[in-house]
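Practice problem: aldehyde dehydrogenase (NAD(+))
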Amino acid sequence: MDLLREDRTYVAGRWVSGHEPIAVENPADESSVGTVTATPWPEVRRAIAEARRSFDAGVWAELPAADRALVLRRLLDHIEAAHDTLVPTMVAEAGQPLRFAESSQFRSGLALARQTIDLYLSMPHEQSAPVPVDDLVRGRVALSIRRHEPVGVVAAITPYNAAIIMAFQKLIPALLAGNSVILRPSPLTPISSLIFGAAAEAAELPAGVLSVITESGSAAAELLTTDPAVDMVSFTGSTAVGRRILAQAAPTVKRVALELGGKSAQIYLPDAVGRAATGAIMVVASTAGQACVAATRMLVPEDRKAEVLEAVTAAYAAIKVGSPADPAATMGPVIDAGARERCERYVALAERHGGTIAFGGKRPQSPDRGYYFEPTVLDLPDSANPAAREEIFGPVLAVIGYRDLDHAVALANDSEYGLSAQVYGADVAAAVGVARRLRTGAVNVNTAVFSAYAPSGGYKQSGLGRERGPDGIRAFQEVKHMAIGELAR
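Answer key — structure tokens:
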């Protein structure tokens, strides 16, 4: 397969070579995907300075929205034309199944981006606000206007598990709103994100409006979160890193948008228990459980728990673990050795605290290279178990029994996280009733939707703000109020 072979980074309209190599490893077989050079430190600073200059000069922000949309559509056309190299690069970098890279990231990402353009153009960005009669008479106010204006310079920091679609979610609304943006992808999967530099160049985006920088550590990301020239940080990743970003951004009072960790629950009403095996497969099949929205807590009626465990175990036994290059494989590896060790650690903790391994729980015998972990089912006695409380970010499913629906809601809400949830029930009214009581940013009841019109984001320690939907666009805008009147004579 042909892969992206770009080893430079894109800074303020030109390609830059560095001296520090970043070796990117294929987690499926531990082979080399390629090497990129880290963006030199002076060039990281130049990316920030040029983003500031381009925004303050209005070279992008002051263009009509329709003109910005035209440029971004050209950018998306360039990315779409790069399909034959971009998709294999995503597969190699993250070890994800081809169908996930092809459908869930590439195709869905492009559709989301194009929908975002349509949504933005349909929204009012300057509108009249009501003026009380007293203000009209005494204050001589002729007009009250609310304007939605760009925030300024935005740092977009994306994760390894869905690098391209997360970039689409951040870059397109941020750029549409008129911001200048610096994209910093995960050091584990940096190559695929360089397509945005090539696309910016092809679309003739003004210099400084978009830069793509890479690094092997976190120094550049920390600069982006602390430099006073950066107005906003949009981050997707772990709650632990999100907390650090909040602390780093506080001295300069940056706007911070965070989509963080999750320990999502999938709740099966008594009349929907037969669907549990399908729900279990959805947790691990595409990303080996490496998704912040993965519903890794399965809540089922206590008196049906044995039945569910048998069905889920049979479903996991049918999963073939292997390389994305193997067409028979239905689950790939986790991202690296550290991620695999985390799975092992939490399985051991689960047992130590009264849980039982119903299936899996270790490294598979084959393949003998790569960072694989068996799809794992844990039978847990309650929600106090560490495997029910912590985000493992791997193919580990916890099954917990509930007494009644009140208990199910209490179990689901008994978490520091609140990113998403799923509720299944043939009695739709009952299922919706449960969904309304869940303290989480999104709930899928018997189905799911992913589009530019549907927001996502977390309650509690799963994040701040929203991505996608009108709220996701407004996240990249400031609100200005203008009161307009005539001078007294």
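Discussion: The CA atoms of residues 156 and 170 lie 7 Å apart. Students who identified this feature from the tokens alone can consider the problem solved.
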